[in-house]
Amino acid sequence: MSNEKPFYPKFSYDAHARTCAEDDFLGQTRRTVQGLPVSDDQIQMITTAIKSGLKMRPDDVLLELACGNGALSHFIFDSCQEYLGVDVSEYLISIAKKNFEKPPHYKYLMQGGAEYMRQESQPERFSKALCYAGFQFFSADQAAEILLILFNKFKNVQTFFIGNLPDKERAGEFYKTRQPSIEELLDCSTAIGIWRTQDEFTRLAELAGWKVSFSIMPTEFHASHYRYDALLSR
Ligand SMILES: C[S@@+](CC[C@H](N)C(=O)[O-])C[C@H]1O[C@@H](n2cnc3c(N)ncnc32)[C@H](O)[C@@H]1O
Q: In order of start, what are the domains of the chain with their CATH numbers?
């Protein structure tokens, strides 16, 4: 028997985005199906799910982790009073600042999610939090730390919407032609990130003190067959 570990590709959103056209916002964050950008209807389904999940109110101050290039989040600006989007990619944040930032109330910041959480000096200002198609790219340690800091230090955050999580129980619906290794499914530095079952996700969130509920997008949504959304509350 061979001791060689099965090969699988690693992925960097920052490096990938730099290969796309400057205005290919959906390509930069791989919001594509078979290489083509998803339709406006799909984007609207996402923003509707986020706004209704978080029960956005006009006086909300929203924190978004792993916000990417802002192409999604700017659709939420009209539902909140203030917004801060944080992402580790220098390039994607430069695109967000250039195209979508509306200072002083709707701003973007380049920083790793866990580093930002540790150093934020005014955490009480936020009332809601969001991480869409991004949480799976935090390492297991970072994910646990972010959930804990959000619960303990960002005390006014009532709900945290964590969307588009890859469902380990349905990985076979995505990987139709090959069987990925466990190592690959647990690696945050692939194009899909860490796959978790809803039970695994519940344990992670509950360890930090959160209550969790799950939802799955309607079948018309391009990724509903292998992804779920989580809503964390106190
Ligand atoms: C698929 S994109 C999603 C972007 C955006 N949320 C959206 O839905 O359009 C994943 C994002 O996670 C970001 N990311 C990965 N690791 C991160 C980290 N440790 N801290 C902050 N952002 C991170 C990447 O830079 C990338 O922008």
A: 13-233 (3.40.50.150)
